[in-house]
Specification:
With 283 residues, the chain is α/β, with parallel strands linked by helices. It has 4 helices and 11 strands. Helix 4 links the parallel strand 10 and strand 11.
Length: 283
């Protein structure tokens, strides 16, 4: 009789504990902090995920219908996205996300990849001065208003890869990494001084665009990807300085120019200051 009572009490308790642990673990994403170390963001996300699970499916009758696609911007950000300590993850949001959502004031890292955001306006990040990283990879962005990132003095990493950009906006001066691979950029859409003031820029990715020439590359850049563009020539001043034969560009350790029409062997004096030759076509 005692064994029976013990089983009746213990088994339900184990099942409930296991369910609580699974529910807690399911809120975490790869690379996030353990639940016990998260602050109010974790609790808010937990409530949000439960609220979403509680919505009545569209094919069943009920008093709380699921949101229509056009209502997505009216929903709280942390209901649509995963909000963790200082980070907001809005990836492949359903219903479709077509604009940058309103972010919590203390957001430092925004991941809004693979949505249908079409435009970045000056209002989107005007009040979020704590941002250090923005990843908008895989959207439909074709326009970014000048000044959209101008107030982000702490921003270090910006990815606009896999969008529909034909020109670049003004970029924050403290960027260390910028990625605009797989866009529709032509040389006329990249201002001559677009990267000139980015004295801390270490990685610059402009591959798979339609550039006809190499833009000005800051001295700080270590990795440069320009592959699969329409670059037809380079000059002595592209990477080196024609008026300074002693100039060395030691920081630039990787340059990719493969997939361009330019025949690099025609310009041997253009790489004398570099410690490595660009990857590309030589014959």
């Amino acid at each position: 009789m005692k064994a029976f009572l013990f089983t009746c009490i213990l088994v339900p308790w184990l099942v409930a504990a296991s369910a609580r642990k699974f529910d807690q673990d399911s809120q975490l994403i790869p690379g996030s902090l353990p639940g016990r170390e998260l602050n109010g963001y974790y609790n808010e996300n937990l409530k949000s995920r439960r609220a979403r699970r509680a919505l009545v499916p569209a094919d069943e009758p009920g008093d709380s219908p699921t949101p229509e696609p056009g209502d997505v911007l009216d929903l709280p950000t942390c209901l649509l996205c995963v909000c963790l300590t200082g980070s907001v993850y809005c990836e492949e949001v359903s219903p479709d996300m077509t604009a940058v959502p309103t972010l919590p004031k203390e957001t430092a890292y925004l991941y809004a990849r693979f949505n249908k955001i079409k435009k970045i306006s000056t209002k989107d990040f005007a009040d979020i001065l704590t941002l250090k990283r923005i990843d908008l990879t895989g959207n439909l962005i074709s326009e970014i208003e000048d000044g959209a990132f101008s107030k982000l003095t702490l921003l270090e990493e910006l990815s606009l890869a896999e969008n529909r950009l034909v020109k670049l906006p003004m970029l924050p001066s403290k960027l260390t990494s910028f990625n605009a691979n797989y866009n529709l950029l032509k040389t006329k859409g990249v201002k001559a001084n677009a990267f000139k003031k980015l004295t801390k820029l270490a990685t610059l990715f402009l591959a798979d665009n339609q550039l006809e020439a190499v833009p000005h590359i800051p001295e700080s850049v270590r990795t440069l990807h320009l592959q699969n563009n329409n670059i037809t020539e380079v000059s002595k001043d592209t990477f080196c300085r024609s008026n300074d034969t002693y100039y060395l560009r030691l920081s630039l350790s990787e340059v990719r120019m493969d997939g361009n029409p330019v025949l690099l062997s025609k310009y041997p004096d253009s790489f004398t200051c570099m410690k490595v030759l660009p990857i590309g076509r030589y014959r």
